[in-house]
Specification:
single chain, alpha+beta, Aminopeptidase, 6 helices, 8 strands
């Protein structure tokens, strides 16, 4: 799978992306907000890609993908849909290197991934979970239409996380109906 947006290319990770994954997974913000994946060497990073994202592509048809700039092809983050055994539905995940945060890249990538998840993968409901101290990710999820549901604790986690859900899109209104009109205004139409 490859998705292109105005500024980004989102593609499946390969073992050749190990140097980037090594840097991203050892970023202090990644470790604090997402967790320590114990990836310390290029070989660890290759194993992480093969056992995680690549295995997910084969098993589910989706997984975390590399996000890179179209201009220059620089890897800047990861974004994708995951299926975790401990959650009832797939969830979206994302992480970006510090130099590429607060520039709209995460929103641009997540919007493309969500559109693909709905239109191609036909996933009606998506989840997301986030460290309650990660304000920027919470704000992004809310901008994408996710709503807080409850606090959860996933396997191997020592803190409770905020669980968000993105409900299926509403069906279109029937012809002639306008939800902004009062019943008497509708009768006058």
């Amino acid at each position: 799978m490859t998705l292109d947006t105005a500024r980004l290319r989102i593609r499946e990770l390969t073992p050749a992306d190990a140097p980037f994954i090594l840097a991203l997974l050892n970023d202090p913000d990644f470790i604090r907000n997402i967790g320590d994946r114990n990836v310390r060497t290029p070989d660890d990073a290759r194993r992480y890609i093969e056992a995680g994202p690549m295995a997910s592509y084969a098993r589910h048809g989706f997984g975390l993908c590399l996000v890179q700039t179209i201009d220059g092809g620089d890897p800047i983050g990861i974004c994708g849909v995951l299926k975790r055994d401990e959650l009832p539905e797939p969830d979206i995940g994302f992480a970006f290197l510090p130099a590429y945060r607060s520039q709209g890249y995460a929103r641009e990538a997540a919007t493309a991934v969500l559109t693909h998840a709905r239109a191609v993968l036909r996933l009606p409901r998506l989840l997301a979970f986030v460290n309650p101290d990660n304000g920027p990710s919470i704000r992004l999820l809310e901008r994408l239409g996710f709503r807080f549901e409850r606090m959860i604790r996933l396997n191997n986690r020592t803190v409770d996380l905020k669980l968000f859900a993105l409900a299926p899109p509403s069906p279109p209104s029937p012809p002639g109906s306008d939800p902004c009109l009062t019943p008497s205004e509708r009768d006058q139409r």
